[in-house]
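Hello forum,

I keep getting stuck at the same step: I have a sequence, I want structure tokens, and every attempt I make locally crashes halfway through. Rather than fight my setup again tonight, could one of you with a working pipeline run this one for me? It's a single chain of 351 residues.
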Amino acid sequence: MSWPTQDELHEIRKIVSEMAGKGTEDVRVVVSPYRICPLGAHVDHQGGIISAMTINKGILLGFVPSGSTEVALRSGQFKGEVRFRVNENHKSRQTISKGEEINADKSSPSPDEFEWGIYARGALYALQSRGNHLAQGIIGYICGSEGLDSSGLSSSAALTALETANGLTVSPTENIEYDRVIENEYLGLRNGILDQSAILLSSHGCLTYMNCKTTEHKLIRPPKFLEDQEAEPQKGYKILLAFSGLRQALTNNPGYNSRVAECQEAAKVLLNASGNKEVEPFLCNVKPEVYEAHKFKLEPNLAKRAEHYFSENMRVRKGELYNGYSRIRGLGLRRSESLWRANDSFWSKFY
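Reply #2:
Ran it on my machine without issues. Output:
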């Protein structure tokens, strides 16, 4: 099924048009899909190998330049309005009070309502921290696919909207770095580059296979796209999307950063044991043979982290050899932090 539908695009344009007092033809819409990670979860922050692709569900951000320095954003799911100015000096999230984050009504907003606009501020922080001068804000509205929430505005969508409004031309690889700045520096989340890289460097209908240490990547196409027409046809595949009803913001969960720290501590132990203590402590810098030779020196929890890293990297390599989605199992859904791609070239899709 095509996504977004024309009805969805018309509706978001109408809302932004009313907010800004401009015509619907002036409204741009950035599409930020959710993604699946068939193999390679929780190894990107250690420079591991991952696989990922987007699906036809996600978040839409409709916007127009505000004509001033003000940014004003509303959500289709949460009350209140996020407001700030692009000429403000933004610091990391820890210095922002919730009272500044959202102008809600007198009713008590839920914790989620404080969070939905944080990526927009983070996008401004990332652009400013890398020397970009912004003079133009945006008026925007976000909404998620029916049945799924829009509690987190995509960092790449926010970046693209601000870049477009200010006439900035930014490459996909540059936006990957900006996304990393938002999450690592601004939000304090020590995650990797899987989400933004997998989508900014991929194509619709293809599985992206990527080395997160070197950023080398390639696209794996479904069997029907293969040039060898004599190849034995394979059965089609379907992706089952199941929403558990549980919500957990990684930025509010210390367990994620603890997991990253444990992976790095395991890497440090293994590197020291092999006489390479000067090497940066990431598991991607530990050779598999070094791990096998010294893994007995790891404490139980560190051993568990290291085992996941090396076994998951092996699973990704084996999955890539099959070169077919129907043989890859263990699909898991996470929100995309990047832009939908609808052909084989590098471009950010607008409507």
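The longest strand covers residues 49-65. If your local run keeps crashing, start a new thread with the error log.
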